[in-house]
Structures are given as C-alpha cells and as structure tokens.
Design a protein that fits this description.
Blueprint lengths: L1 H15 L9 E4 L1 H7 L1 H36 L7 H26 L4 H27 L4 E4 L15 H10 L5
Parallel strand pairs: 1-2
Length: 176
C-alpha cells in the first residue's frame, strides 16, 4: 500500500513537472544502519535483552516445576488414593494454565515484552525522526524516504543523508 501511494505521489510530481522545475529535493536514509550504529539504540536493546532473559528464565523455572510435578504424578505408588492422584493432576493442569497465561502476558502480542521494548525505543525513534526532520528543513529537502521500507530501489549516494543523521545523533548527548 505504501509503495502504491509513493508511486502515485512521484508520478504526480513527474506529471506536473515539479520535479524537473527544481522545486523538489529528495533524500533518503537507511534506518537499519542508524539502528545498528547508534549507541543509544544498542544500549536500549541490551537493556531489553537483559529483561527478556529474566522473563525467559522465569518461564523455564515454571516449566521445570510442571515437569517435576508430572514426574511425581507418573511415579506415584499404586497405593496412593484416586483422590490424591486427581488432586495432583488438577495441580499440574492449574500450573500449565498459569504458565500459558504467563507466556501470553509477557510474550504475547501487546504483552509486557512488547510494551517494554516500545518504552525503551520510542524516545530514541522520536529523537532520530527529529534529527531527520531538522536536516530536511535545514537543507531544504521536500521528501526524505527510508530505504528499509522498500520504497527506494536506487538512489544517488549524494541523496543519502544517513551519515549526516548519524553524525548529528553522535554529537548530541545521550538522554539519561
């Protein structure tokens, strides 16, 4: 859908002759490069990965507890009453449901992990977008595309402002 809209805009600009009249200056950025090289992004990813590791460890502990309960149930001596067996089985099923709920709460769509990642990255994304916007205004760009979105098949290197964005981001002090 984005491609169709972009294509329509570019076609309209070509059709009206604006592009050739010198009224439009186009640039592009490579957001993958920015995300890979910008230290604040790396720090946020590191913090998120540490939290994610904790969640995964907690998940594994809960899973191990269920496996231990299942082993206990499987190895119950034959003299154990049927009521005791049913209680043990009910506990196992309860723990399985709790594990499923935990996994959904943490790792599910819109879960704690997704919210935390957005919480860590959104201020950085906003900062990157502001730097791009500032450069676009200062250097009189009409449109800045992102190569990652798939909209740029080719672009002259002099239109790539990624390095300018990286330089400006590195000059700014990280937010603490």
């Amino acid at each position: 859908m984005k491609r169709v809209i972009i294509t329509m805009i570019v076609t309209a600009l070509f059709g009206t002759g604006i592009l050739f009249a010198g009224g439009i200056k186009i640039g592009y950025v490579n957001s993958d490069k920015i995300f890979q090289e910008y230290e604040e992004v790396q720090n946020a990813q590191k913090a998120f990965n540490e939290e994610q590791t904790q969640w995964q460890q907690e998940y594994q502990q809960k899973k191990s507890e269920i496996e231990n309960l299942q082993n206990e149930y499987d190895n119950l001596p034959s003299i154990v009453t049927e009521q005791r067996r049913e209680e043990k089985l009910a506990l196992i099923e309860k723990k399985k449901r709790e594990l499923q709920q935990y996994a959904e709460q943490i790792f599910g769509e819109g879960g704690t992990a997704a919210q935390r990642e957005a919480e860590l990255l959104q201020p950085i994304i906003d900062k990157i977008n502001q730097v791009i916007k500032d450069i676009a205004i200062e250097e009189n760009y009409t449109i800045i595309f992102d190569t990652v979105s798939g909209n740029i098949v080719y672009g002259k290197p002099n239109l790539d402002i990624t390095d300018k964005v990286m330089k400006r981001l590195k000059e700014e002090k990280p937010e603490e």
